[in-house]
Design a protein that fits this description.
The complex is a heterodimer of chains A (about 110) and B (about 200). Chain A is built from four helices and no strands. Chain A has about 110 residues and is mainly alpha-helical. Chain B has about 200 residues and is mostly helical. Helix content of chain B is about 80%, strand content about 0%. Classes of the chains: A mainly alpha (about 110), B mainly alpha (about 200).
């Protein structure tokens, strides 16, 4: 390492210059390993997979709950869907229809709902 | 700082902000670009704080995973780098705290074995020895003082940027820098008889 590696001009006091020099010298050869970005990418992809799986688990539960509510509402119209929705049964039916309309993966939704 | 370098720095900040916005939308390639732009600084800072290149690599990975996870909470009106340093410092702190008991034990043993004797016939030049004294004195500073010294002297952050990165008021940064400087001055004076002036010609 030479003095050219250290940014110039910030410090004029000798002690400050020495501290700066010593710190630069101590990490002069420090360079991140070349495969680090690949490892980060792998971890991100893996994490996204876990999050997607979690999302689908929640989605299945929501669909299962909705179907159960619909079945119960046919048998007894006064039954509410109080586990995740406290609106009137009519509003609930409307929400359910909108859920169907906006569902991006209809095939999976149908498979879960049946 | 010249007007040209200020302009360059502002343009870098704008590009960083645009990349963070893309990361927020789930763009991994944008995170890759941020990584390429800042990996050296993050790795260097983590290495300086932890003294362990494997640990520094773990910190580097975790920093960019956090940038990805918390991109939503990044304030676009602020520059990206201090935020990045803040994450780096916090992660480096938690890594060294986790490993501290073991690291201290082994590091002390290694330092004792490595420490050059003043009477060693192959001893290095006076100036190199002074730098070694200073390096060891920096290592002996408490973590909170050492981190401030690293960000200020190694990374060239301003007092306000260090304050943001470490999460303390500017006055605390100033007093930590002052205290650390005094400690380092004392260390050199004690071990080398205060011959600081001899070092000048070595790197000017």
């Amino acid at each position: 390492m030479t003095s050219h590696d250290v940014p110039e001009g910030r410090f004029t006091d000798l002690l400050d210059v020495m501290i700066q020099w010593v710190l630069h010298e101590s990490v002069a050869d420090a360079a991140p390993p070349p495969a680090t970005w690949e490892r980060i990418r792998e971890r991100l992809v893996k994490r996204a997979g876990v999050e997607r799986a979690g999302w689908w688990r929640e989605f299945r539960r929501a669909v299962g709950g909705t179907v159960l509510w619909l079945l119960e509402s046919f048998a007894s119209p006064s039954v509410g869907f109080d586990c995740c929705y406290d609106g009137a049964p009519g509003e609930m039916r409307e929400s359910y229809l909108w859920l169907l309309v906006y569902q991006c993966d209809l095939a999976t939704f149908r498979a879960q709902a049946v | 700082m010249t007007a040209e370098s200020r302009q360059g720095s502002a343009s870098v900040q704008r590009e960083d902000c645009l990349l963070v916005a893309r990361v927020r939308d789930g763009d991994i390639d944008a995170l890759g670009e941020l990584y390429e732009r800042h990996k050296a600084k993050v790795y260097r800072t983590a290495t300086a704080i932890t003294h362990d290149e494997r640990m520094a690599e773990d910190v580097l990975q975790e920093v960019f995973l956090r940038v990805n996870r918390y991109a939503d909470s990044f304030d676009e009106t602020q520059p990206f780098e201090p935020w990045l340093y803040r994450i780096t410092v916090n992660l480096s702190y938690s890594w060294i705290n986790k490993a501290k008991r073991w690291v201290n034990f082994f590091q002390d043993a290694v330092e004792r074995l490595k420490a050059p004797s003043r009477h060693d016939p192959e001893r290095v030049t006076e100036s190199r020895e002074q730098r070694e004294v200073l390096r060891r004195a920096i290592d002996r500073l408490s973590d909170s003082h050492r981190v401030v010294v690293i960000l200020f002297y190694l990374e060239g952050l301003s007092v306000s940027e260090v304050a943001y990165a470490v999460g303390v008021p500017e006055g605390t940064v100033k007093s930590r820098l002052h205290y650390a400087r005094e400690k380092l001055k004392e260390a050199i004076a004690e071990e080398q008889g205060g011959v600081l002036s001899e070092v000048v010609y070595d790197f000017t």
